[in-house]
Design goal:
By secondary structure, the protein is mostly helical. It has one domain. It contains six helices and no strands. The two termini are 19 Å apart.
């Protein structure tokens, strides 16, 4: 009996920790994207010459992204935990696939951007605005603003659909997810700063999950 109670206690703590991780992901990713936007004065492709980009803001932003990715994996875990046996194989496949592809594209874009800034510190000032650097900046923009953002939108749509059908979150959260995914799916150029919709929605879901867990299982 004691062993069973210990196992149950461990299981009750896991969703709570993962919900906190979802909040951390939202804050870390939102801060990172905000800093990158300020540093480049536009999309990640940048409207500034590379020599005028603030390297300190870019460096801080890129250092935050790996930790945001780790927190996002925990967030995926708590959603699967709440779905439990109600998880549909079709939706679960797209749910996991879109989430992992989002992380892969985010990390790839951050790696390219970090490489650009690393070379920027070693190359002469006149060499960093050449065609190879322009190509690298465009590659970063395409990876993050097209592919990663689209996967984030798919993740939101699938998660909202599962939430609507299973009731793991209130339906108004699913409706918010549908609404915020549309600008991401059809282009962040429709709404300025639209890239912040995804971490904002994850923050909303995580706060609900955390409050629901605390209400059902108050700390003793």
């Amino acid at each position: 009996m004691v062993e069973e109670q210990e196992l149950t206690g461990k299981r009750l703590r896991t969703p709570r920790a993962a919900a906190v991780a979802g909040i951390l992901f939202s804050l870390l990713l939102g801060t990172s994207l905000f800093l990158l936007r300020l540093a480049t004065m536009g999309s990640l492709a940048g409207s500034k010459p590379l020599a005028e980009v603030d390297p300190r803001r870019v460096d801080v932003a890129l250092q935050l992204i790996p930790f945001a990715g780790i927190a996002f994996l925990w967030f995926i875990g708590v959603l699967r935990d709440r779905l439990s046996h109600r998880e549909d194989r079709l939706f679960a496949t797209v749910f996991l696939g879109s989430g992992l592809l989002f992380l892969a594209m985010l990390f790839a874009g951050a790696a390219v951007m970090g490489s650009i800034m690393l070379v920027r510190t070693t190359e002469p000032a006149g060499a960093i605005d050449t065609s190879p650097f322009a190509l690298a900046r465009a590659l970063t923009s395409n990876i993050v603003n097209i592919y990663a953002i689209k996967m984030a939108a798919v993740f939101m749509v699938v998660t909202s659909t599962m939430a609507w059908k299973t009731g793991v979150t209130p339906r108004w959260i699913a409706i918010v997810g549908y609404a915020l995914s549309l600008p991401l799916l059809f282009g962040t150029h429709i709404v300025d700063w639209g890239f912040l919709f995804f971490p904002t929605w994850v923050l909303l879901v995580s706060i609900h999950i955390l409050s629901d867990n605390l209400r059902r299982h108050p700390p003793t």
